[in-house]
Design goal:
With 65 residues, this protein is an alpha+beta fold. Helix content is 32%, strand content 14%. Strands 1-2 form a two-stranded parallel ribbon. Strand 1, helix 2 and strand 2 form a beta-alpha-beta unit. The longest helix is centred in the last third of the chain and has 14 residues.
Protein backbone atom coordinates (compact mmCIF):
# COMPACT_ATOMS: atom_id res chain seq x y z
CA UNK A 1 0.00 0.00 0.00
CA UNK A 2 2.83 2.41 0.83
CA UNK A 3 4.52 1.74 -2.50
CA UNK A 4 1.28 2.51 -4.35
CA UNK A 5 0.73 5.74 -2.42
CA UNK A 6 4.29 6.93 -3.00
CA UNK A 7 3.97 6.21 -6.73
CA UNK A 8 0.61 8.00 -6.94
CA UNK A 9 2.23 11.13 -5.50
CA UNK A 10 5.39 10.82 -7.62
CA UNK A 11 7.55 10.31 -4.54
CA UNK A 12 8.84 6.77 -5.03
CA UNK A 13 12.34 8.07 -5.77
CA UNK A 14 12.45 9.88 -2.41
CA UNK A 15 11.78 6.91 -0.13
CA UNK A 16 13.19 3.45 0.38
CA UNK A 17 10.83 0.81 1.70
CA UNK A 18 12.07 -2.24 3.58
CA UNK A 19 10.12 -5.43 3.96
CA UNK A 20 10.41 -7.46 7.12
CA UNK A 21 9.25 -8.05 10.65
CA UNK A 22 10.31 -5.03 12.68
CA UNK A 23 10.47 -7.05 15.91
CA UNK A 24 12.56 -9.90 14.50
CA UNK A 25 14.57 -8.27 11.72
CA UNK A 26 17.19 -5.54 11.92
CA UNK A 27 16.09 -2.13 10.69
CA UNK A 28 18.10 -0.58 7.88
CA UNK A 29 20.71 1.94 9.00
CA UNK A 30 20.92 5.47 7.67
CA UNK A 31 17.25 6.40 8.01
CA UNK A 32 16.12 10.03 8.13
CA UNK A 33 12.61 9.20 9.29
CA UNK A 34 10.80 6.31 10.91
CA UNK A 35 7.04 6.26 10.42
CA UNK A 36 4.98 4.20 12.83
CA UNK A 37 1.38 3.82 11.78
CA UNK A 38 -1.04 1.70 13.82
CA UNK A 39 1.87 -0.14 15.42
CA UNK A 40 2.41 0.93 19.00
CA UNK A 41 -1.25 0.63 19.97
CA UNK A 42 -1.18 -3.10 19.33
CA UNK A 43 1.84 -4.02 21.47
CA UNK A 44 2.98 -3.93 25.06
CA UNK A 45 5.02 -1.13 26.56
CA UNK A 46 8.07 -3.44 26.73
CA UNK A 47 7.74 -4.38 23.04
CA UNK A 48 7.43 -0.71 22.12
CA UNK A 49 10.54 0.25 24.10
CA UNK A 50 12.48 -2.44 22.23
CA UNK A 51 11.18 -1.09 18.93
CA UNK A 52 11.98 2.51 19.87
CA UNK A 53 15.57 1.49 20.67
CA UNK A 54 15.91 -0.22 17.29
CA UNK A 55 14.55 2.88 15.57
CA UNK A 56 16.90 5.17 17.48
CA UNK A 57 19.85 3.01 16.38
CA UNK A 58 18.72 3.06 12.72
CA UNK A 59 18.16 6.82 12.50
CA UNK A 60 20.84 9.19 11.29
CA UNK A 61 21.75 12.01 13.70
CA UNK A 62 18.95 14.55 13.48
CA UNK A 63 16.51 11.94 12.11
CA UNK A 64 12.97 11.84 13.43
CA UNK A 65 10.22 9.50 14.38
Amino acid sequence: MARERLAAEGLEDRAELSVGNFYNDALPNGCDLALLSAIIHQHSAAENVTLYKKIHHALEPGGGC
